[in-house]
Amino acid sequence: MTYHPKSEFMATIQERGFIADCTDYQALDDALNAGMVTAYIGYDATAKSLHVGHLMNVMMLRWLQKTGHQPITLMGGGTTKVGDPSFRADERPLLTPAQIDDNIAGMQRVFSSFLDYEKIGNPALMLNNAEWLDHLNYLEFLRDIGRHFSVNRMLSFESVKSRLDREQSLSFLEFNYMILQAYDFMELNNRYGCLLQMGGSDQWGNIVNGIDLTRRVLDHEIYGLTTPLLTTSDGRKMGKSANGAVWLNDEMLSPYEYWQFWRNSTDADVGRFLKIFTELSVDECDRLGALGGSEINDAKVILANEATTLLHGAQAAAAAEATAREVFEKGGVGDDLPTLELTAEEIGDGISVAQLIVRTGLAKTGKEAKRLIADNGARIDDAPLSDAGLMLDAAALASPVKLSAGKKRHALVKLAG
């Protein structure tokens, strides 16, 4: 992109690597430079927590507010009942209203770590599209909104086209999703003067639909901005770890495990991740990312501390770093490691170490745990573990036992009580 933005927000996110595409750079930059702009990102409530894959866009909302504008976090209480088909191979499982409300409550806790919903002048807004979607009259909606959508054009969007090209079924229910998302943008523009929708690059078609609909129905100019699909330097999708999704709620992933995720970044990703997931200056991010040898590990600790502080607070970040130093440098147990507590009844006459490796999340299946042990990748209390059939009884677990998978993943098992 050769455009040189005048607004602080656009200059910041361009320099830090947040921009994939924009519907009108010049007009959006002018609007941002002229006064406070309200912008939104939508989040369907498909899980009880956001994960690291959402974090780039959450950070963009944070920068929006820090540069004087108003972010809206739009919860998809209505659209979750349909499910976004974008780039999916199959239809999402349908959730009950109670499940959706429960998921929204979990996700809202994460947003409050990054956004200020009580800030004087430009408070963040938490909205739910069920407020307007739940009460739509179907015939009126078809007549007033549906007539503005060309099925031919909808079929040409890459998110839909890729599904049809693979001859995978796309239900009429899912096909309506992009109409509902377009309607959201129009409603937010009408109700709150929202000028901008942001999202991942897979949302481009949905965003453009909303811009077109708003122009046709309200005759208002609004804009779209997308972030790139973020992958690690080795080509993996951002937000996945050996144990699955890297959740942002501490009930689903401990602050220590979250800290470890960032500490385990590959050398080539450190500079880029510092720019996107921390608020350190760009010059400092470049300096840290260029470090070589063992010094890059110091940069990774800074990345882990900064990212963990934003989500869980400085105290949690300091505790995670202290535990890591205890575990890695001193060979200790560490107070903050993920811990599995078992009752004497659960242990019974004994429980196999392979089963404990699965129960602690260090392996997904017994087969994977046994392979880890056979490949000399497992340790118990820092000693090599070679016997997958080793049984531990209540007496053995009276003091905590440390299990390790490789050099970087550890957990404790102890007797409850």
TrEMBL record:
Pfam families: tRNA-synt_1b (PF00579). GO terms for molecular function: ATP binding; protein homodimerization activity; RNA binding; tyrosine-tRNA ligase activity. ATP binds at K240. One of its GO terms (biological process) is tyrosyl-tRNA aminoacylation. Keywords: Aminoacyl-tRNA synthetase, ATP-binding, Cytoplasm, Ligase, Nucleotide-binding, Protein biosynthesis, RNA-binding. Coiled coil: none annotated. A motif ('KMSKS' region) lies at residues 237-241. A motif ('HIGH' region) lies at residues 45-54. It is an enzyme of class 6 (ligase). The keyword Ion transport does not apply. InterPro entries: aa-tRNA-synth_Ic, Rossmann-like_a/b/a_fold, S4_RNA-bd_sf, Tyr-tRNA-ligase, Tyr-tRNA-ligase_bac-type, Tyr-tRNA-ligase_bac_1. It is found in: Cytoplasm. Homodimer. Catalyzes the attachment of tyrosine to tRNA(Tyr) in a two-step reaction: tyrosine is first activated by ATP to form Tyr-AMP and then transferred to the acceptor end of tRNA(Tyr). Belongs to the class-I aminoacyl-tRNA synthetase family. TyrS type 1 subfamily. This is Tyrosine--tRNA ligase. It comes from Pseudooceanicola nitratireducens.
